[in-house]
Amino acid sequence: MGRYRRKLRSFLTAALFAACPAGTVLAGGSPGLTGANFLKIPVAALPAALGESYTALIGPDSALYNPGALGLLGYSAFSGSHNTYLAGITQEYAALSLRTRYGTAGFTFSSLSSGGITAYDDDDQIIGETETSHRVAALTFARAWPDFPSDIGMIDPMIIPPSWTRIREVRDYRPKAYRFAAGVTVKRVMEELDDDSSAAWAADAGVMLVLPGRVQIGASALNLGTSQDFYSEAAALPSSYRFGVAKDFRTVKDLMVFTLAADAVKYRDSEIYQSFGLEIDILRFLQVRAGHKTIENAGAKSTVGFGFNFDKFTETGFLKGIRVDYANIGYGELGSTNRIGLQAVW
Predict the structure, then answer these.
(1) CA–CA gap between residue 77 and residue 94 (Å, rounded)
(2) Bridge partner list, 297
(3) CATH 2.40.160.40 at 2-345, yes or no
(4) pTM above 0.85, yes or no
(5) How far apart are CA 165 and CA 309, in angstroms?
(6) In this structure, are residues 71 and 183 in contact, taking their beta carbons and an 8 Å threshold?
(7) pLDDT digit string (tens) for 282-314?
(8) Structural contact between residues 152 and 76, judged by C-beta atoms closer than 8 angstroms
(9) 226: exposed, middle or buried (Cβ count in 10 Å: 0-12, 13-18, 19+)
């Protein structure tokens, strides 16, 4: 039985690493030495389509990349995604952001399931099925300076504008040279492999600076925490450090808005890499997105996606906007992954 458990453990560990291309071979790095590598898988549809160049962008998904950016979200929002991953693996994600007079509070939850995995004994005989489960739950709080509680439910014109059409922009004049925000996240990472489980605490921290001309600069440190123990072995969480910049460009009457974003990312088990994202917002209805990473992995260097606004369906009720997002990430011969997301604001 001990030999079977060791063999099963090795198989499940290898399967999990294979499902996380962000942890594959990079020159000079030490890949595969961290636990909870499912945390590297992009789950939210909008950031995934931008190649995860999201450290300097603002939205309900900011809690995943830079909790400080959440402090500049002027309204409350919900974001959810379903990820059809490789080899029958599926992933679910939900985020809730609540804007209050004291700051912005956020809750995120994601889960990844392997589905049924055939189990073998030491003689390579099938003995049934097993599965893996990976979950993370997180609480975030962020605040901006200067802060204007009267702006709750509105969009600050200093911020790169979101695509929502029914959220009012702040009109009263206030001389502003900058806006600064900071935020922290506390999370619980939980995994089950066969009949064994492990859990660890982790924390994220991030800051955001908005300069005149809607230049946004963000920096964050993610998944800083305790080690994860399985059997008699311990592995550190896949902590990372991110730095990003973002800027938008508008045509006449905002018929089209071009948003450019770039990130530099360093995981503890790999060398630094860069990612770049572009979103083209057409008439505040259709958003076309593309991203690119310099990381060498299983073919997922380029990403594409789009979004559709359905604000007209929120003319009654408390909702002020609904959008559907889609992202596609290809992994070469392994196939493609598809993420479908939904965002709602109020």
Answers:
(1) 11
(2) none
(3) yes
(4) yes
(5) 9
(6) yes
(7) 999 999 999 999 986 545 689 999 999 999 888
(8) no
(9) middle
